[in-house]
Write a structure and sequence with these properties.
alpha/beta, 36% helix, 5 helices, 148 residues
Length: 148
């Protein structure tokens, strides 16, 4: 989660919503790919940290499935990212802060609970939750001029 948080800090420094993601080989522990939100920089609403990390890991691995990999992300993935995680067949999802408004795993759409979901990874949420949430709160307070 430390590396995902560092990616979130990169996003923060670029005035992107501070979310970071890292994909790790579940056997070796090696980081295969990492990313942070780049929606503003890429002018692309789908440039979420998770999607970019999945794309990079698939290119590096040379395949569209990442069964032997886990993803670490600083915020509960949204429904779009949760579905991509399922399609990529990631083994496990570790995330930091919960997202009661836009989450897609424990909140909102609960993608992995849908009967149409073909692959359900193991999910472990709340890792470094306070730290990850503080960075997001700090970002939005700054964006809104000091008030939530």
């Amino acid at each position: 989660m430390k590396h995902a948080y560092e990616e979130a800090e990169k996003a923060y420094s670029k005035e992107e919503v501070p979310v970071g993601a890292v994909i790790v080989d579940c056997h070796s522990g090696e980081i295969i790919a990492s990313s942070h939100n780049e929606m503003i920089g890429k002018k692309d609403p789908t440039a979420h940290a998770e999607l970019l990390a999945i794309q990079r890991a698939c290119l590096i691995r040379g395949k569209s499935r990442l069964e032997e990999c886990d993803i670490y992300v600083t915020l509960e993935p949204c429904p779009m990212c949760a579905q991509a995680i399922s399609f990529a067949r990631l083994r496990r999802v570790y995330f930091g802060a919960y997202d009661s408004k836009g989450g897609g795993i424990d909140h909102g759409a609960k993608v992995f609970n849908a009967p149409s979901c073909h692959h359900t990874p193991e999910v472990i949420g709340g890792i470094e939750e306070q730290k990850c949430a503080r960075l997001l709160v700090k970002f939005f307070e700054k964006k809104r001029g000091g008030s939530l």
